[in-house]
Amino acid sequence: MTKNLVIGFILLPIGVMVTPLLPEIGVPIILLSTRFLQEKYEWARRLNLWVDVKFASLKVKFRKFRKK
Question: Is residue 42 packed enough to be buried (19+ CB in 10 Å), middle (13-18) or exposed (0-12)?
Answer without folding.
Answer: exposed
